[in-house]
Design goal:
Helix 1 crosses helix 2 and helix 3 crosses helix 4. The mean pLDDT is 96. It contains five helices and ten strands, in the order βαββαβββαβββααβ.
């Protein structure tokens, strides 16, 4: 039995997230079908993350066990030949028997992309959040640094249920602006449900004066989701990198 480590990218617009669900087509469902066909055996793929409906991935890892002797290049070419145009296999390599795309992951980086203009961009439809407000880059950059460190992010996630550990470590939170595009890069050891989108929404509320930047510490201490900002739309979010 071989254990393969696969990197792929996908545009999440047409999918109800990565993980198989009963209410709509998912990335996992489509990829599993194509991989099973190429390997000539029914397989289950294990993804590094659960992405929400409409969220994209520039680098997403999954692992799969197989009896097939297909070469790594043969896997890439074969599966890409079966996949729709909005999903692409980037690489394939043999992994150690105990490698698991989710449990072996040491950290992730997310990108949130905003088109900051009065006018919508037809070329970034479903790929960036159209944000019309004036953007104070210095204010948002300064505020973003308050998320860095090991903290309890209970106020910055959608309810995960009882007994969920909401402590996470954010090691990087960069905000960059290039013409009409704003890029948020967030790197950490793990992320809670909607956590990145709520952090981005909170920064946008700070940008608009709805939340004072000196209130972030108070919001962290409260653990109250209602005190944090909006949940930014899914279409601007990308799983950008995964680290092993």
């Amino acid at each position: 039995m071989r254990n393969l480590k696969i990197m792929m990218a996908y545009r999440g617009t047409a999918y109800h997230g990565f993980q198989i669900q009963n209410n709509g087509i998912t990335v996992q469902q489509v990829v599993e079908t194509c991989v099973s066909k190429v390997l000539n055996e029914s397989v289950v793929i294990h993804g590094c993350s659960r992405t929400d409906t409409g969220v994209h991935a520039k680098q997403f890892c999954f692992s799969v066990q197989t009896n097939s002797k297909i070469s790594e290049l043969g896997f890439v070419r074969g599966v890409n030949g079966e996949l729709p145009a909005d999903i692409s296999i980037l690489s394939c390599e043999e992994a150690e028997p105990d490698f698991h795309a989710r449990f072996s992951c040491k950290g992730k980086e997310y990108l949130y992309l905003i088109h900051n203009s009065e006018c919508k961009d037809p070329f970034s439809k479903d790929l960036a959040y159209h944000y019309r407000r004036k953007f104070n880059l210095e204010l948002v950059q300064e505020s973003a640094q308050q998320f860095i460190g090991t903290k309890d992010f209970k106020a910055f996630c959608t309810d995960n249920g009882k007994n969920i550990n909401t402590v996470r470590t954010i090691s990087k939170f960069d905000v960059q602006k290039n013409s009409e595009k704003i890029y948020f890069f967030v790197q950490g050891d793990g992320f809670l449900y909607h956590m990145v989108r709520i952090m981005i929404g909170t920064l946008l509320d700070i940008n608009e004066g709805r939340i004072a930047k000196n209130k972030l510490e108070e919001i962290f201490k409260s653990g109250n989701r209602l005190l944090a900002g909006r949940t930014a739309p899914a279409q601007g979010l990308y799983l950008n990198q995964v680290f092993y």
